[in-house]
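Here is this case:
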Amino acid sequence: MSASIPLSLSAWGTNSDIFIVLDKNIPVYTVLNDSVQCYFCKKVYTMKKKMTTVLALVLFVAAFFSACKPEDDKPELPKETRILNRWIWDSMNDIYLWESTIPNIDPMQQEDPEAFFYALLNDQDKYSWIVDDYEELLAMFDGVELSNGMSARPGEISENKIISIVEYVIANSPAAEAGIKRGDIIVTIDGQELNKKNYYSLFNKTTATFGFGEYDGTTISPNGKEISLTAIELNQNPVLHHEVIDYNGQKAGYLVYSQFTSGKENEWLDSLNTVFESFKTAGVATVIMDLRYNPGGSLDLSSYIANVLSSANAGDIFVKLVWNDFYNQFWPNYDLDEDGVKDGINSPQLVVKMPETNIDLGLDKLYFLTTASTASASESLMTGLYPYVDVVQIGETTYGKCYASITITDLENPKRHNWAMQPIVLKYTNAEGYTDFVNGISPEAGYQIMDDLLQAKAFGDISDPMLAAALKDFTGENATALKSTKAGKRIPLLPVHRKMLPEKEIKWPESERNRLIF
């Protein structure tokens, strides 16, 4: 870029903001009222008097351009990289929840768009991400992905030695057809013993041979069993297991749910409704939601489930949404439903309400089984219900994610790239303001039970410590013993890469979508 002021410097915009752009597609300044903000360094310059013409504005910023332009001692980045970086920079500066903390980084000097994206994130943000394949992302959101059908959790049994224990198996998957079941222990993959360096790459191979072992209460030893699996495109029904349990003459609905997704054309919502209908027909007096391995998903689906299960009413507040400063002020003054009236504080972009449902269990006490893998929409289901029903949490402290993200792609037509980002754009509170549980939500004293996979029971087995605790509390049986129920000491667990899902579908005004197109 030349040190002189480019001849193509020009401006366009609306009454409220004007974008001064370079080469028609690279904005360098945003003009708001009596100030000018540089897109490169984010400095704000105050004008002594309001400029009334575009020409005056251009002349004003021209005086500052050479001081704020990117360093010109580096070769120009490839066009594709510049487009990606500008898309990342503009999108994040517009919608990111922590927009005010974005560091001053020149997007035109960043050679790696992915690394550039992560460099913009706030220190609190462990959730935002970016991918280079939008179509693959959409398939994953619908519950479709390349998988062998088993979810397994790695654990360290000695220095630099890992085993992995199957948490659950998807029905009709390669793993299910091979007879693999919850609690099976993997000790080798492709003949290799597992360690921190090789586990993830081996486990995620498209085709692999898994060697299994057994636990005798003290040690884990290979049992000679080997199974080869090839991953397929798997459409995963999040309803892993459901049944009505008759315990001491009282009926409880039990549902193991792996993610909050409706699937393509609502196929998995239909499946979920079938489960709730069966609970209603059976006359259950409570529902036990097993969310031990549920990383979250749709807030809207979470609110739907909340209203089906509880005695809350359609229109009651499920959660409130908090955006960055700009959008907190923008949404109340926007007429999203186009009824001629500003939406105000009840804008659907600021409040998620309980929706109308055709199924109403109307329960006043609900149970949730949780682990550190219970996150996001799973946590919102519990906290959103706090004001309306008696929520009993049993298990471990949850992950701690009171934030929601949206999918941002290139909105130009034709698209210039196939990347998509999933930045955090808002946090949620329940109707009473409960939020900021970044360290997770913990069960009350006496209801803290470890999920010991070495002692894993089949879903629905009433000897499962967590399920047993819920049933005993529900029926009032042996309440004193319940408060001392603990699983044995377990092996140290390692992180597992669970897929994340979009939390909130945003109806975005076309005029505001244009803010993201440069």
